[in-house]
Design a protein that fits this description.
By secondary structure, the chain is mostly helical. It has one domain. It is about 70% helix and about 0% strand. The protein is flat and about 50 Å long. The mean pLDDT is about 80.
């Protein structure tokens, strides 16, 4: 309900948080959409992985926190290295707006 009320409020606001005209640009809207979907996916991943650590592995809540450190470090390293390696080969549009599925062939 909150996201649905965001659009009417932002159209009437004198100085909006997100001017809706920026979403009419295709590249920017695609970047916002892919960023939002990746944040939602990471939230779900961390939620269910913490359930797995606590219920399946038997970790305490205090020990399940540090169990995420290796994954977080590898994500930070991988995101910087993969982006710089694939940007010259595929371009920004393919990295941001193209779905990352095995069924989508490279451009």
């Amino acid at each position: 309900m909150l996201p649905a009320s965001f659009v009417p409020l932002e159209t009437r606001a004198k100085s909006p948080l997100l001017p809706l005209r920026v979403l009419t640009e295709r590249n920017r809207a695609g970047a916002y959409l892919s960023l939002g979907l990746s944040v939602i996916a990471m939230f779900g991943m961390f939620l269910f992985l913490s359930y797995c650590f606590q219920l399946v592995k038997g970790y305490s809540p205090v020990m399940s926190g540090p169990a995420f450190i290796p994954m977080a470090v590898l994500q930070a390293i991988g995101s910087t290295q993969i982006g710089t390696a694939f940007m010259p080969a595929f371009g920004l549009g393919a990295l941001v707006s193209r779905p990352a599925t095995p069924a989508s062939p490279p451009p």
